[in-house]
Write a structure and sequence with these properties.
There is one protein chain. The chain has 263 residues and is an alpha/beta fold. It has two domains: 3-69, Beta Barrel (Ribosomal Protein L25, Chain P); 77-253, SPOUT methyltransferase, trefoil knot domain (Alpha/beta knot), CATH 3.40.1280. Helices cover 34% and strands 25% of the residues. Strands 7, 8, 9, 10, 11, 12 and 13 form a seven-stranded parallel beta sheet that branches. Strands 1-4-5-6-3-2 form a six-stranded mixed beta sheet. The longest helix is centred in the middle third of the chain and has 21 residues, at 119-139. The relative contact order is 0.15.
Length: 263
């Protein structure tokens, strides 16, 4: 069944309307007609099953049959901060990271970033990145559409660390020493066990460097700002692979692969 993320304003009581590209896709590409059903997500985790009642003038009007909270989100909210990689690798990180459960993405520029950042092109690229996140969230049956922030400087990224319950900097030097991600996640999970039921989902930030990785000064700056440097194993991962490995490990520890133990 087709799933679309919409603005909450497109829902009015038991009525919902699809507009623009979403309406065109459902009516023209999918050849939907009155009586067919679709799912509308308001982006906050609530999804509504609707029946089409009218298709006209670039609009698809539906009647909400039932609504519920999405059960597709990770117990922990994970934001991926990714230093700008070459080519279209960031698109891969956003697409696959959305499928893996990331709640948001923060592109940034660090010392070894090879890409020449051009602010004049940012708006167009940001629009494409957000479209990729939207389409991946719909395909993966997510309840929220991950946010994709504007490209930040390294200094700006460090200033955001305080907004998270845990910041994990993926640093290959820690992997070579055998200092991995697992003990940090286990310690974090243990700390959460005392939280009251219904407490806000914990927020983690996973920070991934560019093709050349982070240098030692950046690692120390990150630690001073509150991050923990962790390894993702003894092998060297491509920059577009690192975030996905971290997301899989976090999903496992938070109960994503079975009964949720640490919510």
């Amino acid at each position: 069944m087709q799933r679309y993320f919409i603005d909450p304003g497109q829902i009015d009581g038991e009525a919902v309307v699809l507009l623009g590209e979403d309406a065109r896709h459902l009516s023209t590409v999918m050849r939907a007609k009155a009586g067919d059903e679709f799912i509308a997500c308001d982006g906050s985790g609530r999804e509504s099953l609707a029946e089409i009642v009218n298709i006209e003038g670039g609009r698809v009007e539906g009647r909400i049959m039932r609504a519920r909270e999405s059960e597709a989100e990770m117990a922990w909210r994970v934001t991926v901060a990714q230093s700008l990689p070459k080519g279209d690798k960031l698109e891969t990180v956003i697409q696959k990271g959305t499928e893996a459960g990331a709640s948001a993405f923060l592109p940034f520029v660090s010392k070894r970033t090879v890409v020449q950042y051009d602010a004049r092109k940012e708006a167009k690229r940001l629009e494409r990145w957000r479209k990729i996140a939207k389409e991946a969230a719909e395909q993966a049956h997510r309840g929220i559409m991950p946010e994709v922030g504007e490209v930040a400087s390294w200094k700006e990224l460090l200033a955001r660390f305080g907004g998270f319950d845990r910041v994990l900097l993926c640093y290959e030097e820690e992997g070579r020493k055998g200092a991995g991600l697992r003990p940090e996640l286990e310690a974090f999970a243990s700390r959460l066990q005392g939280d009251a039921e219904g407490a806000p989902r914990p927020k983690l930030l996973v920070v991934v460097g560019p093709e050349g990785g982070f240098d030692e000064d950046e690692a120390r700056q990150a630690e001073a700002a509150g991050a923990v440097c962790v390894g993702l194993g003894r092998r060297i991962l491509r920059t577009e692979t690192a975030a996905l490995v971290a997301l899989a490990a976090i999903g496992y520890e938070s109960g994503e692969m079975g009964e949720a133990r640490h919510v």
